[in-house]
């Protein structure tokens, strides 16, 4: 399975553009979309604060990022492992299959839903 170079280049351009935007512009400005779940329900979804957390991380403030969305900061190592697993998929299919196993995916799902509940119950 060979990746089309235009798609790879487009993905890199989009990723770099988002990194630059989130690094330079504070998501609390009016240019960023608000969470519709929060607007409609008044409850934080598991992803609330992620834009602000990414902005804080890109500006080197891990503590602020943790305060905005601890789950996002906690999942950075997992995302790194998933990216690595994808990159070495052909050479290490067992590693890729383990990282993308049902057990891992369901565990992540339970943690995300649990975080969504806990942060609303305890005001995190
Ligand atoms: Zn939200």
TrEMBL record:
It comes from the Bacteria. It holds the Pfam family DUF2752. This is DUF2752 domain-containing protein.
């Amino acid at each position: 399975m060979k990746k089309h170079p235009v798609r790879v280049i487009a993905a890199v351009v989009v990723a770099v553009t988002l990194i630059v935007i989130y690094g330079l512009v504070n998501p609390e400005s009016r240019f960023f979309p608000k969470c519709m779940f929060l607007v409609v329900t008044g409850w934080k979804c598991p992803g609330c604060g992620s834009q602000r957390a990414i902005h804080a991380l890109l500006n080197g403030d891990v503590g602020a990022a943790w305060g905005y969305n601890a789950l996002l900061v906690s999942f950075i190592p997992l995302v790194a492992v998933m990216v690595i697993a994808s990159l070495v998929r052909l050479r290490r299919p067992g590693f890729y299959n383990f990282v993308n196993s049902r057990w891992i995916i369901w565990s992540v799902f339970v943690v995300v839903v649990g975080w969504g509940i806990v942060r609303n119950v305890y005001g995190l």
